[in-house]
Every structure is written in structure tokens, then in C-alpha cells.
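BUG-312 | component: ligand-complex export | severity: low

The export step for uracil jobs runs without errors, but we want the raw record kept on the ticket for reference. Input record follows.
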Amino acid sequence: MRAKVGSRPERPRGPGRASPRRRAEAAPGETDRRGKTRAPEGEDSGERLQKFLARAGIASRRQCEALIAAGRVQVNGQVVRTPGTRVRPGRDHVRADGEAVRAGDAVTLLLHKPAGYITSRSDPQGRPVVTSLLPAAGLPRLFPVGRLDWDTEGLLLLTNDGELAHALTHPRFGVRKVYHAKLKGHPTPETLALLTRGVVCDGEPLKALAVLPLHPTRQNAWLAVTLEQGRYRQVRRMCEAVGHPVLKLIRVALGPLRLGALPRGHCRPLTPDELHNLRAIVAATRPSGPGGEPVTGRRGRVLRTSRTRERP
Ligand code: URA
């Protein structure tokens, strides 16, 4: 059989053909010639330091790499500057900027945020915060993913997974959000077209990806507004700019997630399907271009990724 161009010729595998390195080190789960058994991958072989830090909610995986390279992370009392270093959760002592880091399992909850709550863990003015709506016990420290205004309700994720939060909120990745907005008055089709063509608010160009009229009432219009941008009070500012202030705003979708019939003020864990779909977003936003960047289109959506530099 001819070998494929560019591939190494096939060699018979088996104990007699193992390379000297393989013979000395043994594969995960095998016993080497010194009689030591290497732990199976994913168990005691540990995980990469940057992944461990991101899972603990310190920052995104890439930001954690920078933290490590800057000498701000210690493992068992030693400064470690190599991001790929493997650590064993629960066994190795990891510190970031001197603070002990513990990474439990990633937890992500979907909350129906009511109006009248601040998207934060705490508020210096003592106003109600979204984390006060979560069950009091049994949860790690969760952070809101992005923000909804005090007077906006709807789908809000809370997680301790820094990498997931980064993938869902970084403008470069353009994860879509859908809002239902109740407007004062009834905008004409020409006025609605302005929202997708783009308006300038306080010198900032803002535009919606799509605007669909929903069920109008006698006094008001309801719109479904899809955004890829995520600027401060974007829907409200845009609608105000075209002469139809927003009276009520509800986020009904974030990427593949839907608010559905979850009652206001309630939260739920994600379903396996939802987690699977979110993981696909995170995988697509990992660095993979020639300069380590995701390959993105003009609007910043990930167009393709190469798996040649795949990370765990
Ligand atoms: N646009 C707004 O105006 N407010 C939000 O909370 C989210 C999007």
C-alpha cells in the first residue's frame, strides 16, 4: 500500500515497536518500566493551569494565560510562567495575585430577571441585586454574564465559568440577543427601517440586526429586536432616537438560549442540550487563526476555526 503524500509511512504498532520515549514513559493508564502507573488522562494527570483558573472564574482562558506569563500565579508556592503547566485540582495549591484559587465544577444558571434589580453581586447604594434571587445555599460564587439595565427584565445567565462568560459577552464574537420591546406610539415601517440601517446616539453608531413588529395594542407597538452589538442601554437609546421611547423591555433569547415560560424571579440550571450548544460557542471562540485569533468576519462573527491548535 502506498503511503499518502505528506503522511508518515505506517509502521506496525505493538509492544515491540514502541519508541524509546514511549517505552520509558508509558501511556496514561499504563505501567512504565520503573513500575509506575501513569494516571489516566483527565484524572490525576490534572488540567492546564489556564483552564483551571478560568473555570474558577478568575478571568477568560486567554486572560489567565497572560496572568501566568506575567508571573502572577503560583503553584505550590512556586511562580509558574508556563501556561500549559498541569495542575491537579484539589491537590495542588494555586494562588493568583496571592489569593488561593479553588475550581469546583462549572455552574451556570438561567435567571428570569425582574425589573427593579441591579445586574451585579453587590450595590453600594443598597438596591436589590440579581444574586439575591438565587438559592441561598449550595451554590458557588456566580457572576452575571453581561448586564441588563435595572428596568429591563428577562434572560440573564449567572456562571462561575470565566471562559463561557467571555465567549458570550465579547463584542468580537457577536452572540445574538433578542429583546421584546414595548414602544410608545406606532412607528411607521420607514422608522423601523432606520433601526436596522443604523442611528447615531451620542456620537455612537448603533444598529439592530433585525427588527420585527409583534402584536400591537391600541396605544403601543411591540417589537422583536435582535442585536449583535451590546452597547449601554442600546435598545432604549435607539428607539428614543427614532421618537418612540421604550416603555418595557424583556430579553427573550441569548445565543441558543430561550427565556421560555420561566416565571419572573425564578432560575433554573441549563439543560444538557443548552450546555452542549454553549460549549460549541466557546470552542468556536478559542484562538485558532495564524496569529492566535479566531477567524472572524466583518461583524466579528466567527466564520471558521482551525482545530490544528486545539486546546483541551
Ligand atoms: N438594551 C437596553 O436598552 N437595555 C438593556 O438592558 C439591554 C439592551
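Assignee comment: Attached the raw record above. Residues 1-44, 289-312 have pLDDT under 50 and may be disordered.
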